[in-house]
């Protein structure tokens, strides 16, 4: 199947399909999305009613559909680990503060995890398949697998798949207390050098239009997707990678570039470092979480990056890539894990 | 490789709800007209004296004991584990360790029941609130607590499409089998009572202060309930190896969207119509083949007229028997599709149609009336189960009995 179009709102200048020339630098452990002018994508009356994550999700979806030239997709599938946190927080806080009195429904209505997919469906007047996955570090991959199966089953010719997660002040405070993030001054551009505990918080809204049939403007072919849960150790991870490649009839030598999910947390990055000694030894490997931060659906950013790199034949300048994959990038393997629990592999190739 | 026509069998069922802690207890309550609503006992809410709810009649400690896991705290996870364990036990798959097994769970609240406690402390001081109360807030976290307890790891995911969540989980499970990703799937959903949802529905003014009366002209709204319901789905190949060869298949399914309003259904129920029609098409059945519709039937003004109008459009003049079992269990939100899938299987297994309790005045705008009394000893071959939710999410499942 083919990735026909993308739409990506992230802490980098990824929206608007312009080449990603410079990496935006941040100080501190929280990267926030660079939001576009929503007026070009959403009716201003509706913008006011939407919370930030809904705006980001809807705008990224609309940009993706516009690029694809698709008005109404055959399916809309979203993945989000945390859902609409701002609305959830708002309703929950008022409920506690006012002891369950004087509440209004708006934030409750918009707090459900399927709100973004529903809003997209509503704007497009799309009566087709609409689903929402909410499984932590598998949310995006689950949504994508659902889309892949719909295409295979011939129940859809094209599917809009997206991943959306936001950081709010509340969630950042709580996740910080849980010890997820680095303490003290840190620049996103230096996270792989720190060798300390913790990562930096990220967020994003990335959508893809995947289709059964090729078109003249496709980004890439999506050749395979595989997830695995709580592997017992590095041996099992290596086996999973090997059998994934075997299933798709490629060897590691056929891979031009590997994108891994290093996030700067010394403990969590160990897996990638071990693989660098074995399966990924002598391969060209790049990382991406210095650009978007760490969040459960960050693998969607990696897929966007891979799609863009394959379409243009080279990595965006913002990656400052100086490695030797300077021949045309034809095949990319993405390996990402979230907190060592949720592991995913994706294989993309040139059309 | 995909096998789009492979029959997917129901090998096991499990439930916990306000009318019973297992399938046998629920069936007994359904046959004897015992509804599960009552005054709030386990949830602590300011609306406790005003709004009746359909709670599972066990405290968290009692649930943990039943589930055999005292260290799990979220009620959503405890309910899930009890029902999923029963489903696996009834499936009795001897060589399950050698099979690829998945767990697809649905929920709308996740660990919200504990997050509410966390927020009481957190709001007064951001360094307060016990972190262990918020650590399982995410919906997927609840699924993982249960998957880990069940020892399932080959494919795990969570769906949250409001009140249609677990219908979507069940048919995703069937598709994972047909796509040769797993051999066995435990699929369904769970939701516990939470002040968050109770207050949310209360602000929408669709909660009934009396026991709900779905499909009644004078219906006033829904009663919230809680529980969990799961089916164990197996491939044709696995079904053939089981001691008790399963005879019920998930024959049809469809997910459509109403695309009308974030919370309200369209007057003509277009989403409901498309979901039911799509499920019939998938099953290769005609409307007159359906023997029983387990209605979404929440008891709100809006749902029942939209669903009824869609049924009229699709089924007129061949109306099957119908009922809303939410008259027993209340509306269990993300769990309802799972609980009602098990009820649909029971209707097929026992040849019975459950009553739509408390129906006094049939809706004047509809040409049909749901069953008011239990119907026994009827042939039930095909059952349609409806689950419609916020966000316009509409899903229908069809379960069929093989000859």
CATH homologous superfamily label of the largest domain in chain A:
Thiolase/Chalcone synthase
Which chains have the largest interface? A-B, 61 and 67 residues
In terms of per-residue confidence, which ranges of chain A show pLDDT below 50 for 5 or more consecutive residues? none
| Sheet with the most strands: spatial strand order of chain A | 3-2-4-5-1-6-10-9-7-8
Q: Considering DSSP H and I runs of 4 or more, what fraction of the residues of chain B is helical? A: 25-40%
- Give the assembly state of these chains: heterodimer
Cα distance spanning the termini of chain A: 10 Å
Number of strands of chain A: 10
Q: Residue share in helices of chain A?
A: 25-40%
Short overview:
The complex is a heterodimer of chains A (351) and B (403). Chain A is an alpha/beta fold and 351 residues long.
Topology, pairings included?
The complex is a heterodimer of chains A (351) and B (403).
Chain A: E1 2-9, H1 44-49, H2 52-68, E2 75-79, H3 85-97, H4 106-109, H5 115-124, E3 129-133, H6 139-152, E4 158-165, H7 169-177, E5 204-211, E6 220-229, H8 234-247, E7 257-260, H9 266-277, E8 285-287, H10 289-292, H11 299-312, E9 331-338, E10 342-349
Parallel strand pairs in A: 2-3, 2-4, 7-8, 7-9
Antiparallel strand pairs in A: 1-5, 1-6, 4-5, 6-10, 9-10
Helix pairs in contact in A: 2-5
Chain B: E1 9-17, H1 23-31, H2 60-67, H3 75-91, E2 101-106, H4 112-124, H5 139-150, E3 155-159, H6 165-178, E4 184-191, H7 195-203, E5 227-234, H8 236-241, E6 248-257, H9 270-283, E7 292-294, H10 301-315, E8 321-323, H11 326-329, H12 336-350, E9 382-388, E10 393-401
Helix pairs in contact in B: 2-3, 3-5, 6-12, 9-10
């Amino acid at each position: 199947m083919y990735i026909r179009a993308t739409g990506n709102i992230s802490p980098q200048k990824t929206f608007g399909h312009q080449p990603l020339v410079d990496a935006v630098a941040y100080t501190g452990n929280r990267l926030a999305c660079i939001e576009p002018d929503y007026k070009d994508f959403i009716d201003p009356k509706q913008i006011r009613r939407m919370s930030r994550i809904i705006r980001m999700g809807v705008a990224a979806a609309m940009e993706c559909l516009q690029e694809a030239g698709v008005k109404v997709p055959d399916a809309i599938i979203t993945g989000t680990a945390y859902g609409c946190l701002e609305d959830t927080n708002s309703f929950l806080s008022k409920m506690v503060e006012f002891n369950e009195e004087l509440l209004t429904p708006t934030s409750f209505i918009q707090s459900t995890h399927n709100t973004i997919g529903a809003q997209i469906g509503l704007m497009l007047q799309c009566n087709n398949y609409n689903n929402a996955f909410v499984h932590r570090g598998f949310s995006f991959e689950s949504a994508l697998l659902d889309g892949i199966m719909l295409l295979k089953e011939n129940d859809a010719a094209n599917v809009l798949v997206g991943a959306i997660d936001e950081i709010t002040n509340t969630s950042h405070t709580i996740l910080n207390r849980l010890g997820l993030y680095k303490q003290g001054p840190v620049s996103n551009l230096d996270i792989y050098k720190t060798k300390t505990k913790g990562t930096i918080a990220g967020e994003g809204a990335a959508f893809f239009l995947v289709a059964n049939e090729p078109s003249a403007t496709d980004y890439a072919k999506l050749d395979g997707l595989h997830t695995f849960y709580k592997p017992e150790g590095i041996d099992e991870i290596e086996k999973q990678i090997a059998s994934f490649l075997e299933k798709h009839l490629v060897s590691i030598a056929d891979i031009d570039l590997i994108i891994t999910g290093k996030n700067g947390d010394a403990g969590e990055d160990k897996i990638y470092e071990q693989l660098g000694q074995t399966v990924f030894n002598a391969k060209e490997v790049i990382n991406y979480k210095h650009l978007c931060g760490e969040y459960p659906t960050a693998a969607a950013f990696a897929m966007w990056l891979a799609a863009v790199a394959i379409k243009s034949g080279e990595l965006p300048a913002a990656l400052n890539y100086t490695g030797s994959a300077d021949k045309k990038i034809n095949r990319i393997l993405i390996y990402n894990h979230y907190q060592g629990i949720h592991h995913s592999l994706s294989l993309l190739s040139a059309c | 490789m995909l096998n789009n026509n492979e029959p997917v069998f129901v090998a096991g069922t499990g439930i916990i709800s306000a009318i019973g802690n297992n399938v046998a207890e629920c069936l007994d309550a359904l046959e004897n007209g015992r509804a599960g609503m009552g005054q709030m006992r386990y949830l602590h809410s300011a609306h406790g004296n005003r709004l009746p709810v359909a709670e599972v009649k066990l405290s968290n400690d009692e649930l943990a004991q039943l589930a055999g896991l005292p260290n799990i705290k979220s009620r959503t996870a405890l309910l899930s584990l009890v029902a999923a364990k029963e489903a696996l036990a009834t499936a009795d798959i001897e060589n399950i360790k050698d099979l690829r097994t998945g767990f697809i769970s649905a929920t709308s609240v996740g660990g919200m029941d504990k997050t509410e406690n966390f927020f009481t402390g957190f709001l007064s001081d951001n360094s307060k609130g016990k972190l262990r109360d918020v650590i399982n807030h995410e919906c997927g976290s609840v699924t993982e607590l249960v998957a880990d307890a069940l020892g399932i790891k080959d494919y795990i995911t969570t769906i949250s499409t409001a009140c249609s969540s677990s219908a979507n989980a069940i048919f995703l499970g069937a598709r994972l089998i047909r796509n040769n990703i797993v051999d066995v799937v435990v699929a369904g959903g769970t939701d516990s009572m939470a002040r968050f949802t109770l207050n949310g529905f209360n602000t929408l003014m669709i909660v009934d202060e009396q026991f709900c009366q779905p499909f009644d002209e004078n219906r006033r709204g829904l009663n919230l309930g809680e529980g969990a319901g799961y089916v164990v789905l197996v491939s044709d190949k696995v079904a053939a190896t089981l001691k008790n060869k399963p005879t019920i298949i998930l024959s049809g399914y469809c997910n459509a969207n109403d695309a009308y309003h974030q919370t309200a259904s369209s007057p003509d129920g277009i989403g409901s119509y498309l979901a039911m029609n799509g499920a019939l098409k998938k099953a290769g059945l005609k409307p007159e083949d359906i023997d029983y519709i387990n209605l979404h039937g929440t008891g709100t003004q809006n749902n029942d007229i939209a669903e009824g109008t869609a049924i009229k459009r699709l089924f007129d003049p061949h109306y099957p028997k119908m009922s809303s079992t939410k008259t027993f269990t209340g509306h269990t939100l993300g769990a309802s599709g799972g609980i009602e899938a098990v009820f649909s299987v029971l209707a097929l297994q026992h040849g019975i149609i459950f009553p739509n309790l408390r129906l006094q005045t049939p809706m004047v705008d509809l040409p049909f009336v749901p069953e008011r009394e239990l119907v026994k000893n009827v042939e039930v071959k095909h059952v349609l189960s409806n689950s419609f939710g916020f966000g316009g999410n509409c899903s229908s499942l069809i379960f069929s009995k093989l000859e």
